[in-house]
Design a protein that fits this description.
The chain has one domain. The longest helix has 28 residues. The protein is mainly α and 179 residues long. Helix content is 83%, strand content 0%. The radius of gyration is 16 Å and the shape is globular.
Length: 179
Amino acid sequence: MFNNLLFISLAPILIIAFYIYSRDKYEKEPLSFLLKALLAGIIIVIPVVLIERLLTISSENMEGMTNAAYTAFIVAGLTEEGMKYLAFYLFFWKNRNFNERFDGIVYAVYIALGFAGIENLLYVFSGGYSVGLVRALTAVPAHALFGIAMGYYFGMAKFYPSYKPYYLVLAFFLPFVFH
């Protein structure tokens, strides 16, 4: 049972990671940097959990749509996308391997997949196969799509410096809103 839950948790991560890697047509990113991006996504789970717990305390008196909006946008969206953005900016923005616009997408998606992998393990091991199946079709691809949006705008910011501030804002804002 453990192996099956592990498989259903990580299979969508590996499929999307392979797909994004295969789409990098001109200059593949070094595997060490892809692993670093995955690791960055894994590591940010710790501050995300701590921040989300603190933010959840503030929502104890909220009800209905107010609580749902606060939880979706502030607790989850702001925290998770904010930490992914920070990880990208700190570890990959000035990296010499970030030398094509598509590289932004690759690194941001791998960060997102590292995060989604740990999140998926936690949810699937506590909720079972049905949770794994639903998350394989929803949450994991969603995190990858948020990473695509983030990475696209990081790439635009890096290679179109006259619009850098605008694109850096979009690199955070769009994934945050989509989340």
